[in-house]
């Protein structure tokens, strides 16, 4: 008799959802490829699915045991794909429909987080043309789309700027008619991964160009990650508590990443947003934090897959 395959996912069929329809498609392709490779090393039968509008038909034909959702941005991360997977009765990684939709809507997420006692920036939601016509907040401030990730479409309006960026009023602007405008918080860029409700550690991010934009996040050499962050033990503990509280308040499951700003001069720490499907690329923060905690990349992918499978067969949830 042939020997049984001892790899932990032997005999399991995993569909890895990657690519997708959002502005973060290219990042998702990289995340998905890394996770698919890991799943194959773990013994799974892997179907790599470039998720399009025919996703339901494709998955119905494949009939996987579990879906590893490596999509980023709108449609894949905002509850839409999660709703498709719920309808099909397929277990999937990361958060459910409601938590995904809520976290992607930055304005509504901030209201929930503030009610839970998490410190968030001020500001508000504005029509993009109004925000482009004149300063709606005293500079410096930040303008960002209300429902995008990876710093897509984010602008910092410096102190002394004569006018807001013209780009947000352009005819080809495709990131929604409403933009979130928040006061700029000086200081350090921090990130905290949360796995199964518990914070991993705190990373300090030092962008090469001074702003943690798309290139700083994903281009080689775009930023330096300092792990653990160069902050006081008290601030470190506070950041981890805030990330755990945010994860819980939004009803997240699996792995998330909270992005924070820390004004280390005035000891002001604010949570900017929660990413329900953090990047899994070679430069991504969550795999790096997991490694620092002794969890190798393949182990992280294995835990996420088994967690999804267990939750799926314990009864689906939209939370």
Automatic annotation (TrEMBL):
Main localisation: cytoplasm
Pfam family, one: Dala_Dala_lig_C
EC number, UniProt record: 6.3.2.4
Transmembrane stretches, start-end: none
Subcellular locations according to the entry: Cytoplasm
Positions bound to Mg(2+) 2: 273, 275
Residues annotated for Mg(2+) 1 binding in this entry: 259, 273
Gene Ontology cellular-component terms listed: cytoplasm
Gene Ontology BP terms: cell wall organization; peptidoglycan biosynthetic process; regulation of cell shape
Cofactor comment text: Binds 2 magnesium or manganese ions per subunit.
UniProt keyword annotation of Cytoplasm present: yes
Pathway connected to this protein: Cell wall biogenesis; peptidoglycan biosynthesis
Co-factor requirement: Mg(2+); Mn(2+)
The entry's keywords: ATP-binding, Cell shape, Cell wall biogenesis/degradation, Cytoplasm, Ligase, Magnesium, Manganese, Metal-binding, Nucleotide-binding, Peptidoglycan synthesis
Described purpose of this protein according to its UniProt entry: Cell wall formation.
Protein name: D-alanine--D-alanine ligase
UniProt organism field: Phenylobacterium parvum
Species classification: Bacteria, Pseudomonadati, Pseudomonadota, Alphaproteobacteria, Caulobacterales
Name of the gene encoding the protein in the UniProt record: ddl
